User: Which sequence fits this backbone?
């Protein structure tokens, strides 16, 4: 025990007496390194500003701490709780109810450029005190040697800052709802569970895809070269002279002086057909595909290139010895969504064959995944209270088709083909489902672009580029759309106005996550920045609310697993956007599928009272 700047011996009874009489306490660990699988937990420190207890985890059984660390009734104040939890989990402790000062600071300061990722950073920022870390490295690689007084004092010193930091952070959050802080702190343990579990990779399947991608990239490069050779507008990008090679036929020699792996060189080529192009980024290029076939050819080359590199054989370097991939999640980005790195599982190629490479970690288990059906559309409908949208979604109709019918009228009806599922009737009522009519598909695609795009700041210019129509026609369609759905227009304009006036946006209740816009300078905000704020305001309200909903679902899933002692039957392994991915023992899969659906839909009703359906799937691999 460390009390009044003195190190004193203590017993388990002393520690338990302290814990029995507090509602919250600081908690920290010291380890031999950063890898929870191969490094060792050395000590656990807990306490408050008055006293701290140091427990040598190498020689003491931590079983007596389980009731306190697993309790929902006592708050454990920590810095980087997920890291400490991973080591405690190996001691059989499944933690609950934490307040992570690093995560909380991140939520409160989304507008700041720097991410405070250490306790010492936060102590200096909020308490204006300096924490010496000179002793920290002495723990690395320790074995059986006894701890020095300096090490004990160092570990206990960390504890005294945690309650003070919590008080500062909670007072800073006084002008916002604290539900989002509770949500994000609960998510630190969800994230740790997923990072510990990981997901197994079928390496043979993955290698086959990597080899296929390399071949396809080579083929795509040949197509690009041929376009340069055959179209005279690209003459400047051909070699004036071709060096002969006695071992290679002349027709097989490369006659193009462009490195397709160089964005700078590619941009010069593409500016030949799109002079005002600013970059060769796929998002920007996708709006110009109709300008020239070289753009679509380069997009295909770029796609195969990414699959051959980032998601090719290099991806296997992220494998752990047990054959699993363990991504690292960033708990929250600007909108509230999570990010993923080393590797980035959010950007796994969309094709099912890539997802199918990820399989359950244990034989006799299934992948059980669920996402929200039309989540963002339901959030827009709830926010706007548009009667057409709400009715279509509540009755499980195809919203995009209904909107296309109302927007295009006679043109939509003329596109009807025999067996059309939209106009097919049951008991005198049309199905109004997505159909296969070619005429309907084209019009539905237009409306789908508007339904999603206008929520995220789609302009007539980008709409025109995407649809391959004139800017005038694009503007007319947008105006017709808003006349047809006035509630949608009113809602979108209200979000834009709020963001421009306040300089921030909040997600829907009960979480009210705040995103501040650093570009905002009130009346003096430059016009181009104000346009960006409008778009970000809409995006945050809708996408951020979706992120809150998914995170609540993940927290409830973890709570259900723990309360019902299901860890031997169900594990959380991964989340992507609005999707929760779990694995389940096959003798429990049928029951878990229904439980997962109920949990997801319960989370949705907290934000959208009319509800959003969850769609669970069961498979032997991760499905698209």
Assistant:
């Amino acid at each position: 025990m460390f009390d009044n700047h003195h190190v004193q011996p203590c017993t388990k009874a002393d520690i338990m007496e302290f814990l029995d009489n507090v509602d919250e306490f600081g908690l920290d660990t010291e380890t031999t390194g950063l890898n929870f699988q191969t490094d060792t937990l050395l000590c656990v420190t807990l306490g408050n500003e008055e006293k701290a207890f140091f427990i040598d985890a190498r020689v003491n059984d931590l079983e007596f701490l389980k009731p306190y660390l697993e309790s929902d009734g006592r708050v454990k104040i920590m810095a980087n709780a997920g890291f400490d939890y991973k080591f405690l989990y190996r001691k059989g402790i499944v933690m609950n109810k934490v307040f992570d000062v690093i995560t909380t600071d991140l939520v409160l300061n989304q507008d700041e450029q720097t991410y405070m990722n250490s306790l010492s950073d936060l102590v200096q920022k909020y308490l204006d005190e300096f924490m010496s870390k000179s002793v920290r490295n002495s723990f690395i690689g320790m074995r059986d040697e006894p701890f020095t007084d300096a090490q004990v004092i160092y570990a206990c010193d960390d504890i005294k800052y945690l309650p003070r930091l919590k008080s500062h952070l909670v007072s800073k959050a006084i002008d916002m709802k604290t539900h989002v802080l509770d949500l994000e702190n609960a998510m630190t343990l969800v994230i740790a569970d997923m990072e510990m579990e990981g997901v197994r990779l079928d390496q043979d399947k993955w290698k086959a895809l990597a080899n296929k991608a390399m071949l396809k990239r080579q083929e795509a490069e040949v197509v690009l070269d041929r376009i340069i050779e055959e179209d005279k507008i690209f003459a400047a990008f051909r070699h004036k002279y071709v060096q002969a090679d006695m071992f290679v036929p002349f027709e097989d020699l490369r006659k193009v002086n462009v490195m397709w792996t160089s964005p700078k060189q590619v941009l010069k080529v593409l500016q030949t057909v799109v002079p005002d192009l600013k970059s060769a980024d796929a998002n920007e290029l996708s709006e110009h595909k109709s300008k020239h076939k070289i753009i679509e050819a380069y997009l295909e080359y770029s796609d195969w290139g990414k699959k051959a590199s980032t998601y090719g054989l290099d991806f296997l370097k992220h494998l752990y010895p047990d054959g699993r991939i363990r991504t690292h999640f960033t708990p929250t980005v600007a909108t509230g969504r999570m990010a993923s790195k080393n590797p980035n599982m959010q950007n796994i190629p969309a094709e099912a064959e890539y997802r199918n490479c990820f399989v359950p970690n244990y034989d006799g288990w299934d992948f059980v995944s669920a996402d929200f059906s039309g989540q963002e559309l339901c959030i827009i409908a709830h926010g706007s209270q548009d009667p057409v949208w709400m009715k279509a979604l509540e009755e499980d109709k195809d919203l995009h088709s209904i909107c296309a019918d109302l927007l295009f009228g006679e043109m939509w009806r003329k596109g009807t083909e025999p067996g059309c599922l939209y106009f097919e009737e049951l008991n005198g009522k049309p199905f109004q489902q997505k159909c296969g009519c070619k005429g309907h598909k084209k019009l539905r695609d237009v409306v789908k672009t508007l339904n999603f795009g206008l929520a995220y700041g789609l302009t007539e210019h980008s709409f025109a580029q995407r649809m391959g129509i004139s800017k005038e026609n694009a503007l007319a369609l947008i105006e017709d759309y808003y006349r047809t759905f006035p509630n949608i227009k009113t809602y979108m304009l209200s979000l834009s106005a709020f963001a421009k006036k306040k300089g921030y946006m909040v997600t829907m209740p009960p979480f009210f996550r705040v995103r501040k816009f650093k570009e905002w300078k009130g009346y003096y905000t430059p016009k181009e920045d104000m346009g960006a704020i409008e778009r970000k305001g809409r995006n945050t309200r809708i996408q951020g609310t979706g992120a809150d909903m998914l995170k609540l679902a993940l927290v409830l899933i973890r709570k259900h697993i723990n309360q019902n002692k299901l860890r031997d039957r169900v594990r959380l392994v991964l989340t992507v956007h609005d999707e929760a991915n779990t694995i389940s023992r096959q003798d429990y899969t049928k029951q878990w599928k229904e439980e997962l659906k109920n949990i997801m839909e319960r989370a949705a009703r907290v934000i959208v009272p009319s509800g959003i359906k969850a769609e669970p799937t069961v498979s032997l691999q991760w499905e698209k």
